[in-house]
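Workshop exercise sheet. Pairs work together: one partner reads the sequence aloud, the other fills in the structure field after running the prediction. Swap roles for the next sheet.
Pair: D.N. / O.F.
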Amino acid sequence: MSSQHKVFLSPEEYLAIERAAETRSEYFNGEMFAMVGASREHNLIVINLSRELSQQLKGKPCEAYANDMRVRIPSTGLYTYPDVVVVCSEPIFEDEHVDTLLNPTLIVEVLSESTESYDRGKKFSNYRSVESLSEYLLVAQDEYRIEQYLRQSDGTWLYSEAHSLTDHVQLTSIQCALMLKEVYDKVSLA
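Structure field:
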């Protein structure tokens, strides 16, 4: 009987592999985790979010990135790829490659059946440790629902949700608003 042992990588080894790879992987505690492909609905929602935020951020000192901007959580060592991330101060990157952001203002995750509990639990726990993070959005792809977590001045997080196409979510940290009818444009829900 053969036993396989796990190979643990340093962050530097992970980044070298990741930067040369054709597919994306997250990294935590020495291990790489391959990311799976996204559904049609997931892709449409990410594009819609990106379009809406990009339009509203014109002329503002904020930058929005979709899918491929890696974020590192300094306090825990997690490297991850949010679906959408916005930074509203001078972006701080891990190194000269300018592909790993350290100071996100807003992070958006589009939920899927395979990642929902992680996005709500351990991943959000990691995100909460980032001092610059002011808002976290969870966007459903199987129903009309956006959940918003807004950091309060005392460090607690205020929860709210919108679940009708006529609702909007006010993004205080970046001074934008998302209309659900725009976020879910062309998305067919079963």
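Discussion prompt: The chain has one domain: 38-183. What would you look at next?
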